[in-house]
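Structure representation.

___
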Amino acid sequence: MQPETRIVGPETVRMLELGHPWIIADSHTRRWPNGQPGQTVSLTDATGCFLATALLDPDDRIVARVLSRDRIQLNSDWMKRRLESALALRRDHADLGDTTAYRLVNAEGDGLPGLTVDRYGDFLMVQIYCDGWRTHLKTIARLLQELVGPLGIYEKTRPQKTRHLEASGDDTHCGRLLQGVAAPPQLEVRENGLSFLVSLERGLNTGLFLDQRRNRRDLMARVEGKRVLNLFAYTGAFSVAAAAAGARLVTSVDVSAGYTDWARNNFGINRLNPKRHEFLIGDCLEVLAGLAASGKRYDVILMDPPSFSTTTKSRFTTRGGTSELVAAAMHLLGDGGLLMASSNHQKLDIADYLKELRRGALSAGCNLRVISLAGQPEDFPYTVTFPEGRYLKWAVCVKEGKHG
């Protein structure tokens, strides 16, 4: 059966001609006939000229996502070819080394918009950001089993009000087993030759952000013999990397006692004595003020905050919050020290992010020289027609004093 036709407006036509894969709800899409999530449609302009085949998600702000610029049938054969292409990219181009946790399918970057698949050792984790994939989930799982052969396949759901859950520390079961055997509650995986514990069932995230793998390797090359401060440490992946690479002292700061315990466990499984390092629980800005007042100084300061976080006393957002954080951190960083600053905020491009770093440095009366800019690794590809896919920013900066 041929997909039904949906007419898009001139602005969407222009975006499609530029190669963008999203159809955003507007006055034209509101006139579309009723459709079901998971239904494929043929997109045309007002004259009936075919533009693309798309996957419907009618209740979302992104009402459809482009699957192909050709007329296709969304069936098992088509999905298998896309999955095989994604696996081939990792095999041929991703520098994985001693790593068993990485992304297998990166949504729009692999031609499966709104769908990601991550590998954690012998298990896979599927996440759906477009309800249109829900009706095709069994087929996707069957194909992944056939192509990869995992012990089990999980789906990690994204519940409503995720910001509230993160702020409250709610340990919600967001992962569910789709097929195969269950993973242990704490599953050990490898990254860059180090071990980390992840949870495929509990929490909004698994405990390891896979898109920072290459940046953790970058950190490891810069910290031997140094004093390192890791802000928003989460489960301590960057801290473990720094300690394993020979950092003299690693101070990890996070507002969550639970994540801090998790970080200590990550130190332990790598035979790194957590007692030789520092773990501070508290709001990062408050902790920075306390460290500065006590005269503490560091050679390397790392900050990888979430795009949004709330504590009982403060709220952090990337826009504006980054500059305040940088300004506070500069008081603990000696001249010639390194600031390693990162953001995963999709709507903040690299130029605006550098402006945030500039505001912070100027507020502190110093300067920052950028010596390296990076993003996500090879297993997180994005197309040049989809700028939203290039979301991760990693800036390595050298501090210069007022008279530098």
